[in-house]
Amino acid sequence: MKRNIPLIVVAAVFLATILFARETAPLYSWLFPGAEPPVYDRGSFLALAVSHLGLALGALFASAVLGVGSAIFVTRPAGAAFRPMVRSIANIGQTFPPAAVLALMVPLLGFGVRPTMLALILYGLLPIIENTLAGIESVPAPVRDAAMGMGLSPRQVLRQVELPLASPLILAGLRTALIIGLGTATIGSTVGTLTLGTPVIDGLVSNKPNFILQGAIPLALLAILVELVFDRIEPNG
């Protein structure tokens, strides 16, 4: 139970920041005298948080399907020749700054969720692919040979031996991809996506540090909360 106290505390504070944002107006009036309005009032923080987390989790799911699937494929004899290409694509996705991806995709996909989702998926591929490759390749050859000797097919060896043994590294890749996604989703607000970055961008544009702080606090708490959740679900946690 004691191990769960930090998780419970951070979750409670995070919920308080998004559910009772308007109630903190006196505090921000004191911190930023003369700021009008004292708190961000152009949307619900709950709606922004749900949209932000939904974007990050949706992109994580797509990145996981593509990344884990690609890594498995290139570790099989039939896909070994495609390994350099898969790793190059993943590296290219990480090389482009998120703002550049958004700028390039807006003319093609328009404003809103679609260019943001594409940027999140591209940024999540590299850690997932690299960690899945490292996890599968860390399985000792004698373990594979023993499984084959027991009569398991290559597909059964993958499902029952390789993936379970590789799961700690795969989960670590998912963790990294989600943290990156939570941060990158913030920039999506520059192209009209509703996220917790919306008050931050709005505050930067209108020179309202109170808006920036109100968006940055739940963003930081959300990232910490995700870290704590993964600490509980990872096999070594």
Structure at a glance:
By secondary structure, the protein is mainly alpha-helical. It has ten helices and no strands. The relative contact order is 0.15.
Task: Provide a descriptive summary of the structure in words.
The protein is an all-alpha fold. The chain has one domain: MetI-like (MetI-like fold, Orthogonal Bundle), CATH 1.10.3720. Helix content is 76%, strand content 0%. It contains ten helices and no strands. It has helices spanning 5-19, 25-31, 45-74, 83-95, 98-109, 113-137, 141-149, 154-187, 197-206, 209-233. The chain is elongated. The model has no long low-confidence stretch (mean pLDDT 87).
Main sheet record: none
Give the strand content.
under 5%
Query: Given the helix and strand composition, which structural class is it?
Result: mainly alpha
In CATH terms, the superfamily is: MetI-like
- Please state the average pLDDT score: 87
Are there runs of 5+ residues with pLDDT below 50, and where? none
Spell out the blueprint of helices and strands.
Elements: H1 5-19, H2 25-31, H3 45-74, H4 83-95, H5 98-109, H6 113-137, H7 141-149, H8 154-187, H9 197-206, H10 209-233
Keywords:
MetI-like fold; mainly alpha
